[in-house]
Structure to design on (310 residues):
């Protein structure tokens, strides 16, 4: 059922970004810039300082994340959703998507996790990868991974989440297979990539179905119209996003790639297993809570998957 939100459903928009919140885009831009500089200049030209740039960009993102978190705590409890629209991203008929960010308590938690633990992993990698001739490229891939995760948790719409989702998948493939001279590492990287593509089918179909059902991809718009959609539509959406979450979080039935991912360098295992990538599925399900609220079937499926994976 298509819901013309602009005609009949009031949408509560987040507060506009101001002050320190205007720096939200910088949190993503710093590691993305680090990855771009190292990859464009090449491993040879950047070998002496790439690790310093890689660490500095992620630590910079962490410092800004702490600053905006402190500012968020100073706001009233009912005014802790801040939006920042950067530019109009896609315009195609009735399909309109902005490159926009959403900062609220949920994204604040994940920002601190990603940038905080990511900074520690970058610092540890300086010594761990010291004698690797491709160390500069490794730090570029680490920066790319962090930037994609930050895009995933800061986007204010499913299209932006999908961009970060695929970026994380690409970066994880590059990191797991970093020592591609080892056949086991090359196979593990391909396995992770293929299994995650199965989950990504759920993400892609779910994103398309959200627009077909609600006429928008923003979280605020979907939340406002969720009670107008049929339970069947919400159940299908919930199951599609659960499939996507199972891929990234290595839950049954898409868990087989996770142990093989240990073939990558140790910092990769820390980044993927313990800190960021496996939490992407958790973020997607929690962020889509307004969908699961209207589908007991999908709620039960989430409980079953969680219980089996314990």
């Amino acid at each position: 059922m298509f819901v013309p939100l602009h005609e009949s459903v009031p949408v509560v928009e987040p507060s506009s970004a101001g002050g320190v919140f205007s720096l939200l885009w910088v949190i993503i831009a710093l590691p993305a810039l680090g990855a771009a500089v190292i990859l464009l200049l090449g491993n040879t030209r950047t070998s002496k300082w790439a690790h310093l740039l890689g660490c500095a960009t992620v630590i910079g993102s962490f410092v800004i994340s702490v600053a905006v978190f402190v500012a968020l705590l100073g706001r009233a409890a009912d005014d802790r959703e801040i939006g920042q629209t950067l530019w109009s991203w896609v315009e195609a008929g009735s399909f309109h998507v902005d490159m926009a960010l959403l900062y609220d308590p949920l994204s604040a938690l994940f920002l601190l996790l990603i940038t905080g633990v990511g900074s520690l992993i970058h610092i540890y990698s300086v010594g761990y990868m010291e004698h690797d001739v491709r160390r500069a490229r490794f730090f570029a891939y680490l920066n790319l991974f962090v930037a994609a995760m930050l895009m995933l948790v800061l986007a204010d719409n499913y299209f932006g989440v999908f961009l970060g989702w695929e970026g994380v998948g690409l970066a994880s493939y590059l990191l797991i297979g970093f020592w591609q001279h080892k056949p086991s590492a090359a196979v593990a990287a391909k396995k992770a990539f293929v299994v995650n593509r199965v989950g990504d089918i759920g993400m892609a179909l779910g994103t398309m179905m959200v627009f077909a059902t609600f006429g928008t991809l923003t979280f605020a718009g979907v939340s406002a119209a969720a009670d107008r959609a049929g339970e069947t539509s919400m159940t299908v959406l919930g199951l599609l996003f659960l499939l996507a979450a199972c891929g990234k979080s290595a839950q049954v039935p898409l868990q087989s790639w996770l142990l093989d991912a240990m073939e990558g360098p140790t910092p990769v295992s820390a980044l993927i297993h313990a800190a960021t990538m496996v939490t992407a599925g958790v973020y997607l399900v929690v962020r889509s809570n307004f969908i699961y609220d209207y589908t007991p079937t999908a709620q039960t499926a989430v409980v079953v998957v969680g219980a089996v994976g314990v």
Q: What stands out?
A: Residues 128 and 266 are 8 Å apart (CA to CA). The radius of gyration is 20 Å. The beta strands are 15-16, 82-92, 95-103. The longest helix spans residues 183-214.
